[in-house]
Amino acid sequence: MQLGLIGLGKMGGNMATRLRRAGHEVVGFDHHPEKRDVDSLEALVGALSAPRVVWVMVPAGEPTRETVRQLGELLEPGDVVVDGGNSKFTDDKVHAEMLGEKGIGYVDAGVSGGVWGLENGYALMVGGSKDDVAKVQPVFDALRPPTPTDESGQEMPGAGFVHAGPVGAGHYAKMVHNGIEYALMQAYGEGYELLAAVDLVEDVPGVIASWTQGTVIRSWLLDLLVRALQEDPQLEKISGYAEDSGEGRWTVQEAIDHAVPMPTIAASLFARFVSRQDDSPTMKAVAALRQQFGGHAVHAVRAQEVERPA
């Protein structure tokens, strides 16, 4: 089938390649001239036969909102817009209503797989009406990983793809997925730090690698940590500063709104905030309190660290 794809960055570009390998026709648009097939959104829509499916793969927030607004002026009744970025699920209802007034369908798709999705496939969590999802299903089938089989050779349903519910359900599922991802990465990172802190363990990368087979904590994330340690055994080339792209915050806020206890994911989010502080004000206060009530020693700030420019 034909697909218009807006945003040909690391994920969007790889998705286009995977779809073309599966025999689909992809018309791509990107702000970088060297990546795109057409020079404008108008040209992209004009290159597609009705009913059209246009997949938006641009940064979440205003870039996605503006792209959807423009598509609403260009597409026709019966066409479908797919938002495959990391948009907040509350944006989906707004987009669906705006497009729905013009007879244009809307599907939100949470996509996981990163730069490895080209070869391994992407896990897809989608929201929307059954009719709109059906129009995009050939694309979903090409992007998802191959369906695994059980010991008898029967296909195992559900792996790599789910129609999670109505509009918004896909991005909501991806939000929770990313919250869990935060916690898993934090746990692996803390385990690594303890192993590296003791003299008893002499081969920390080897220990991490040993966990990838036969253990209950094996995972793709663990495989990626092994890969990182192979490239940089002491992680000396990497700063300990960790960004968050929004989904962890939204997950914790949803947990608060629905009174769902989520201490592990919340702690992993706050740990990322701590990573951005060269000298944590919280720990300054903790050190000061320990000195006040127990006379515990504190580490003085070096003179050059408190100097101010004239």
Automatic annotation (TrEMBL):
UniProt-listed Enzyme Commission number(s): 1.1.1.343
SMART domains referenced in this protein's UniProt entry, alphabetically: 6PGD (SM01350)
Record-linked InterPro entries: 3-OH-isobutyrate_DH-rel_CS, 6-PGluconate_DH-like_C_sf, 6DGDH_YqeC, 6PGD_dom2, 6PGDH_C, 6PGDH_NADP-bd, 6PGdom_BS, NAD(P)-bd_dom_sf
Keyword Metal-binding: no
Enzyme class: oxidoreductase
GO-annotated molecular function: oxidoreductase activity
Keywords, ordered alphabetically: Gluconate utilization, Oxidoreductase
The organism's place on the tree of life at top rank: Bacteria
Domain 6-phosphogluconate dehydrogenase C-terminal residues, every copy: 170-297
Family: Belongs to the 6-phosphogluconate dehydrogenase family.
Protein name (database record): Phosphogluconate dehydrogenase (NAD(+)-dependent, decarboxylating)
Organism: Geodermatophilus arenarius
